[in-house]
Amino acid sequence: MKIAVVPGDGIGREVVPVAESVLRHLHPDWDYYPVEVGFGRWERCGAAIGSGEMDALREADAILFGAVTTPPDPDYRSVLLQIRKDLDLYANVRPVRGPGFSVTIVRENTEGLYSGIEWALPGSACTLRVVTDGGSRRIARYAAALAENGLMTIGTKANVIKSDVLFRRCAIEEAESAGVRWEEKYIDALCLDLLMHPSRYNVVVTTNIFGDIISDAAAYLVGGLGLLPSANVGDSHAFFEPVHGSAPDIAGRGIANPVAAIRSAAMLLAHVGHADEAAAVDAAVDAACAAGVRTPDLGGAASTVQVGEAVLSRMR
Questions:
Q1: Do 143 and 160 reside in the same domain of the chain?
Q2: What's the rounded Cα separation, in Å, for the pair 173 and 177?
Q3: Could you say which of 183, 213, 229 is where a domain stops?
Q4: C-alpha to C-alpha distance for 180 and 286, rounded to whole angstroms
């Protein structure tokens, strides 16, 4: 098994080694190799990612990704958008689980407002929102497969945005074809109701930017962005990353929460066929947190490394 390890920028360089140590504990025989991408590389050589790095990612069976800094510079191209498009990672999957609820938010990952089709005019700037029949159907099929005998909630603004009318129609047709129960909600009302009544939901499917927003908001249910993992999945490639960003304000202080990165490693394990090990990792994280081994964002005093050590000790 070949695992590309991408620390990225900021706290990614602190939390990814912790998550990698969990994988190495379970599978020391796997081939782990580093790949440098991100703002640091851009500052050093003028490109956040090169063709060699993309080739290295393509060769991997799975990618463990940290976080990258995206500066407000018109010449800087988003690394994540480039990787998602080049590897066709069309499904962004973010599980949010807590006492009494388990929700998976499935976000279309390659089009929408993150299509990358943008231009500037005198006094204005434009971003093209691309929603296609093919893209909508394949993300709906992915979500329907996760929903199985549960409920698939379709989040849109089809009352206002014509491209969401297309997404809604495709999602409904795919759910009915798969024999999956479905409901639809407008995304603004859905954001509120999900936070108030998370136990009502199972799988939520929506377009790119709406999924980005609602999944970040859902972090409130479990204690913040430092706890949420995610997967970016395509037909041939997959990479796993914490939902949080590079957090340059706390980078280098050793206090970043590694839980989201560790849970992302658990998702990687499940994806490559080791569901039991993934469950064991999640259980070890829960046990460490329950024992009070927490970083300052959760009211604790443990360092990034100490949380990782606590998780590993419980796995042993």
A1: yes
A2: 6
A3: 229
A4: 31
Give the CA-trace dihedral at 266, 268, 274, 275, to 10 degrees. Answer: 50
Asked whether residue 140 falls in the same domain as residue 167, the answer is yes
Say yes or no: 95 and 209 in one domain.
Answer: yes
DSSP 198-225: GGG-SEEEE-HHHHHHHHHHHGGGTTSG
The pLDDT value recorded for residue 78 is 80
- Judgement on whether residues 126 and 190 belong to the same structural domain of the protein: yes
**129 and 114 in one domain?**
yes
**pLDDT at res. 56:** 96
Q: What is the dihedral angle through the alpha carbons of 238, 243, 245, 249, rounded to the nearest 10 degrees?
A: -140
The C-alpha atoms of residue 143 and residue 135 are separated, in whole angstroms, by: 13
Q: Which of 96, 120, 123 is nearest to 222 (CA)?
A: 96
Same domain membership, residue 161 and residue 32: no
Of 194, 229, 264, the domain-final residue: 229
Q: What's the predicted TM-score (pTM) here?
A: 0.92
Neighbour tally for 286: CB within 10 Å: 14
Three-state secondary-structure class, residue 175: helix
Domain containing residue 243: 1-89+234-316
Q: What pLDDT does 43 receive? A: 84
Q: Are residues 282 and 257 in the same domain?
A: yes
Instruction: Divide the 316 residues of the chain into consecutive groups of 10 and give the mean pLDDT of each group.
Output: 96 97 98 93 86 95 93 78 91 95 96 89 94 97 93 97 97 97 98 97 97 95 91 96 93 96 98 97 96 95 97 95
Contact partners, residue 309, CB within 8 Å, separation at least 6: none
- Cβ-based neighbours of 51, under 8 Å, separated by 6 or more: none
Strands (E), 50-172: 62-67, 91-98, 101-108, 118-121, 124-127, 151-156
Question: Whats the size of the chain, residue-wise?
Answer: 316
Domain shared by 95 and 225, yes or no? yes
The answer to whether 176 and 79 are in contact (CB under 8 A) is no
Report the amino acid identity of residue 211: G
